[in-house]
Amino acid sequence: MQGRHPYDVSKSCTDLITTTYAHTYQLPVAITRCGDFFGGGDLNWNRLVPGVIRDVRRGRSPVIRSDGSCIRDYLYVEDGAEAYMLLAERLRLDLQLRGRAYNISADHVMSARAFAERLVEAMGESFPLDIRGTASGEIREQRLDSSRARQELAWRPEFDLDTAIARTIDWYDRHFAIDASRDVSGVLQRRRA
Fold it and tell me: Which among 2, 79, 128, 178 is most buried, taking Cβ atoms within 10 Å?
């Protein structure tokens, strides 16, 4: 609630607006604060997980834009989606939850460097990280206490970190295979024309 940088302040403002609508208009809304999401479907190659997986699958050292020391609380996207659905269902049944804030964390807290190394290892590779240290304005440490979500919503993450990483890598491998087949079929179509 005391953001200092533009991204943090935007999150603080959203929390305040949500609280206002819950109390002023009695809307069944609540606040969620999640760790750094990872999982299939993220095609922003500048983000840690998609970038590392793509680099490794292309046979090169993964680029880390930061110095790798920033601590993050990583959350598998399917666990986050389950938390959102559970909260929406509970809000429908219990209006006392309106305006409350819930941190959603699977307690996978580690440095960007450690997480990237774990991804590389899970892919069965041994590429060294290309740590650039060019990212600026990074928050040094982010971690969440999800005890309220665990107690009031009975939410628990379904996936352990190794399973979540394996499922994520599998999604990207299937995505890259589809892209490769599209590229090949496009070449074949142009040759036939």
Answer: 79
* CATH 3.30.70.20 describes domain 6-181: no
pLDDT in tens, the chain (193 residues): 677 778 888 989 999 999 999 999 999 999 999 999 999 999 999 999 999 999 999 999 999 999 999 999 999 999 999 999 999 999 999 999 999 999 999 999 999 999 999 999 999 999 999 999 998 878 889 999 999 999 999 999 999 999 999 999 999 999 999 877 776 455 445 445 5
The whole model's pTM is what? 0.88
Q: What's the helix, strand, coil split of the chain in %, to 5? A: 50, 15, 35
Catalytic hit among 7, 21, 74, 102: 7
Distances, alpha carbon 130 to alpha carbons 63, 65, 74, 142, in Å? 5, 8, 21, 23
Domain ranges in the chain are: 6-181
Is 76 an active-site residue?
no
